[in-house]
Amino acid sequence: MSRLRVLAAAVLATAVVVCGLAAPTSYAARKKDGEDLRVQRVTVAWNGTAKRKVFTRTAVVPGIGTLTLVCKPDNTIIRLHAFDRTAETQMWMAKYETKNDRAVVAVKTARVYRYATAADNGRGGTGTFASEGLNQRGRIEDHSSGHINGIISQRPGRHRPAGTAARKPVTSFDLSWWWTGFEHPMAWRSCRIDAVVRTRLDQRVGVSWHGVDDAARGSAQVTSVPGLGDLDVRCEADTLGTGAGEGDQTIALRPTSPDAWAYVETVQAEGPVENQVDDLTLGLDPETGLLGPFALPRNGMLRLFLTVGGVERRFIVSSYYVVNNEKRPELNLCEVAVAAF
User: Fold this and answer.
1) Phi then psi dihedrals of residue 166, to 5 deg
2) What is the Cα–Cα distance from 262 to 284, expressed in whole angstroms?
3) Residue 8 predicted with pLDDT over 60
4) Range 243-250, long-range pairs (CB < 8 A, 24+ positions)
5) Which is higher by pLDDT, 334 or 217?
6) How confident is the model at residue 17 (pLDDT cuts 50, 70, 90)?
7) Residue 121: burial class (beta carbons within 10 Å; 0-12, 13-18, 19+)
8) What does the pLDDT look like over 220-275, one tens digit per residue?
9) Do 37 and 31 meet the contact criterion of CB atoms below 8 Å apart?
10) Nearest-5° Cα angle at 107, 193 to 138
11) Sign of the CA dihedral running 212, 232, 108, 37
């Protein structure tokens, strides 16, 4: 059984206990090896016989906004609120659940923005909220369960350069949901949503640029990860037609020890897990001294399990880029975010 299926089974197995009252949000800072890691644990939990039912709970997304869990009898969603609508704010999610007796996954992106492209006039876009529904039908089904791996990031709006802009913290979250009895009277109903929200404030990993001119200023980042090595993220412009060759869109690790290996999952689009998740296990390349490089999906997510000298670190990556628009190079862009999870 793959690591993906083992983790999914563990999450779903722990999601079936339902309490009478919603647990409070906990907020903690942990410093280890110089890290500044903020962890929030958020739970919405109620049953129909409880006198007091709390249907929503909210976590802070540092530097960006808030994330709210909602489980009402007529509305089951997670909702992102971004304080700045002019920025490009993205909540990427790999959403795992069962449909038609099959394990499926869907990559979803909830965005808050004012400028859709560099050529947009800014009169449209979204409001300050974006959300993802947890139910599969318009009328919420009687029973549902599943889990989400997510990552939230922000950068300047697509009408502005982003290559040298100060990076906002990147937040990851793991969420599971379970409800039952929603087609019965209230006394039969119960719901629980659990989320763990993590933000590293001292490391802000990712690559963003808007337009090929901006790409020259910020198409790569190398970040030192304590106990692991140097994480190298590259999202270069496609220079085909100029004689310079094709750019790289990759992530790699230069480990501190040759005793290193990686397990990587690439998740794209929507469908059965076995069709939409590509996984591989790879050791160190003795010629380059690298784990990887691993290709960034054009429109998707990665989960990286990197082990060096017996120390494992896990990362989640969102990746979206358009690098081959030769007629309108100012509309090319890359938006990659990386967070520990």
Assistant:
1) -60, 135
2) 8
3) no
4) 247/215, 247/219, 247/323, 248/293, 249/295, 249/296, 249/298, 249/319, 249/321, 249/323, 249/334, 250/292, 250/293, 250/294, 250/295, 250/296
5) 334
6) very low
7) exposed
8) 999 999 999 999 999 999 875 443 447 899 999 999 999 999 999 999 999 999 99
9) yes
10) 60
11) negative
Which residue, among 97, 113, 91, 21, has the nearest Cα to 301 in the 3D structure?
91
How do residues 50-74 score in pLDDT, each as one tens digit? 989 999 999 999 999 999 999 999 9
Distance CA(298)–CA(314), nearest Å, equals 21
Contact by Cβ (8 Å): 22, 57: yes
Nearest CA-CA partner of 33 in 225, 305, 315: 225
- Spatial distance between the Cα atoms of 312 and 267, rounded to a whole number of angstroms: 21
CB 41 within 8 A of CB 195: yes
Token pair, residue 102, equals 């099959």
Per-residue pLDDT tens over the stretch 76-86: 999 999 999 99
Cβ-based neighbours of 45, under 8 Å, separated by 6 or more: 18, 19, 20, 21, 22, 23, 191, 192, 193
**Helix-, strand-, coil-residue percentages of the chain, each rounded to 5:** 5, 55, 40
For the chain, how many residues are written? 341
pTM (2 d.p.): 0.90
8 A C-beta contact, residue 267 and residue 300: yes
User: In angstroms, what CA-CA distances link 160 with 92, 117, 252, 338?
Assistant: 22, 10, 28, 21
Structure tokens that stand for 106 in this block: 């869907």
d(C-alpha 295, C-alpha 218), whole Å: 18
CA–CA gap between residue 297 and residue 336 (Å, rounded): 10
| Alpha-carbon separation of residue 47 from 51, 86, 177, 179, 182 (angstroms) | 9, 40, 14, 9, 11
